[in-house]
Amino acid sequence: MVVIDDDPDVLSYTATVLRKRAGCEVVALGDPAEAPDLVTRFDPDVVVTDIQMPGMTGLELLALLRSRSPALAVVVMTAHVSVDYAVAALRQQADEFLTKPVPGADLVDVVQRLALRSRAARSASPRQVVLAIGAHPDDVEIGVGGILSAHHAAGDALVLLTLSHGARGGAAADRQHESLAAAEQLGARLFLEDLTDTEIPGAEPTVGIIERVVAEVEPGIVYTHSHHDRHQDHRAVHDATMVATRRVRTVACYQSPSATVDFRPSRFVPIDGFTDAKLALLDCFATQSGIRGYLAPDFVLATARYWSRFGEGTSVEPLEIVRDAVEVARAEGSQATGASRRAELEDRG
């Protein structure tokens, strides 16, 4: 359970009621901007949020949560009783609209009912599709192996797209088997293409391949290479991905061992609890572990430990955010607010 409200008294009251009277495990949050990452990590059955908060409205947050987890139950509360608020909340597909002050018994009843429904809905199908794109076998496992393991544990549908067999780094057949083993460990669907290693183009046919996979699996999140990388294939895959995923709401770039000092992450994702899973993924690539120092477990763990200085937890994977559903939701909310304001002024005129 996650409760989000900028009023500390309401936040404390709501969290206390749900803990003591409903027996819920509750995370209370006063800043809505922190909610997306928290919800991803905490994986709640229900989110209870105010409708009007500084920085991000409850409706913007609701749109974001819906884009990432359609089955998540969301309760919207407000002290401003009006038909407009209720209609806006329902249009954004809020599961319940409650007016403050909310009686404790009513709050408990609503949350318990929605939690049961949310668990049933999410157990029936994956919450979202995650696509990880790499130029060579082991690229995505090195860059976001911990994050992908966390997605797998959360029940998300994982898809891996590798653009080449990596023949310059070992026998293509061996690397194919290693890729399949890693994908099986993640429960992921693997698309393994056969573009020429070290000669992957940044335009066609790479763009077309990525577009085909995107159209087929319809991802909500895409992870890919950073442009800040010494390897020409990595830069080419980044450029092609930017074109092919232009309609995907969340796109982020991971760090490769060949990343340059210009790699500038802005999101630091804790992978505490998933470092062993990441190391197990990298163990699948036995032909590389003996010749690539960056695959050594102590190097992998030290890298994750280093990035933790910028985020929470003790192990972190860094991401450059190209496009985030949070910002998309904010932009859409601002546009809707502006359109509503213009319409109001036109009516008055």
3D structure, described in words:
This protein is of the alpha/beta class and 349 residues long. It has two domains: 2-124, Response regulator (Rossmann fold); 129-328, Rossmann fold. It is built from 13 helices and twelve strands. The chain has helices spanning 8-22, 35-42, 58-68, 83-91, 104-124, 139-153, 172-186, 206-217, 232-244, 275-283, 286-289, 297-307, 325-348, and strands spanning 2-4, 27-29, 46-50, 73-78, 96-99, 129-134, 157-164, 189-195, 221-225, 250-254, 267-270, 316-323. The longest helix is centred in the last third of the chain and has 24 residues, at 325-348. The chain is elongated, with a radius of gyration of 22 Å. It starts with a strand and ends with a helix.
CATH topology of the largest domain, by name, is: Rossmann fold
Quickly count the domains: 2
* Rg from Cα: 22 Å
Structural class: alpha/beta
Tell me, briefly, the overall form: elongated
Strand order of the largest sheet: 8-7-6-9-10-12-11
- Content of β-strand: 15-25%
Mean pLDDT rating: 84
Helical segment count: 13
What's the end-to-end separation, in Å? 46 Å
Index terms:
alpha/beta, Rossmann fold, seven-stranded mixed beta sheet, 2 domains, five-stranded parallel beta sheet, 349 residues
